[in-house]
Amino acid sequence: MEEKDLDRLRHQMPELDVITPLLFGGNKSVVFGDKKFSGSTQGVNPDYAQVSAPQMFYGRYINEMDVRQQRKVCVIGKQIYKNLFPSGGDPCGKSVRVDSTYYMVIGVDYRSGNGINFGGRADETITLPQSVLRSAYNRGKAVDIIATTGKPGVVMSSIAQRMRETVARAHSIDPTDEKGIMVFNTEVLFQMLDNLFKGVNFLIWLVGIGTLLAGAIGVSNIMMVTVKERTTEI
User: Fold this and answer.
1) Which of 17, 21, 61, 63 is deepest in the core (most CB within 10 A)?
2) Is Signal one of the keywords (predicted)?
3) Does the predicted model carry a pTM greater than 0.85?
């Protein structure tokens, strides 16, 4: 995919709110002093924060000026921070080396890596302005992932096929080929998780009812035995 695909979606899919590119630079060694950590690199625009919801422990996220001026700045994940700065403290303003290029740390994203991840775990990722990553790794106008969110009230599963068709036709790909243009809808995943939790809650409810019934039967039996014993005594 390419940057033009973002414009196509903006013009043809008014239901979408955020439409932002995501680029990957691969796994790289991130170095600070004598400390080293292997993490994945990604390039983003500021509005990617509305999709990924970073949890900034220190500093800030990538902003528009970083992208426009191609500033050599980065946001590091939690595990990178813990390994490069084991004594803790605010790392913002310090420079780390990725390959042969130095980037100033402007923030620490403290998300865990257990959620939905693209291109690597969130806590092991170093995030750069997408314009900087393009230049550093000769990515040209390429886009690896187009991340989107729907406007309020929009059901993403109802427009997923139209999104695929919009991009596929521009690249002479069969719009019905789900492997040609892959659409990953987190809404479906969340629905599955919601159904799973509903099933677990229902199971807990059944176990609770069964426990109460077993307790009631047990108490009833004890009372019957006690009554019989007292009847004999009388």
Assistant:
1) 21
2) no
3) no
Instruction: Supply 28's token pair.
Output: 């790289």
Q: In the 3-class helix/strand/coil scheme, how is the chain assigned residue by residue?
A: CEHHHHHHHHHHCCCEEEEEEEEEEEEEEEEECCEEEEEEEEEECHHHHHHHCCCEEEECCCCHHHHHCCCCEEEEEHHHHHHHCCCCCCCCCCEEEECCEEEEEEEEECCCCCCCCCCCCHHHEEEEEHHHHHHHCCCCCECCEEEEEECCCCCHHHHHHHHHHHHHHHCCCCCCCCCCCCCCCHHHHHHHHHHHHHHHHHHHHHHHHHHHHHHHHHHHHHHHHHHHHHHHHC
Residue pLDDT, tens place only, 126-140 = 999 999 999 999 999
| Amino acid occupying residue 162 | R
Show the tokens assigned to 98.
């990725």
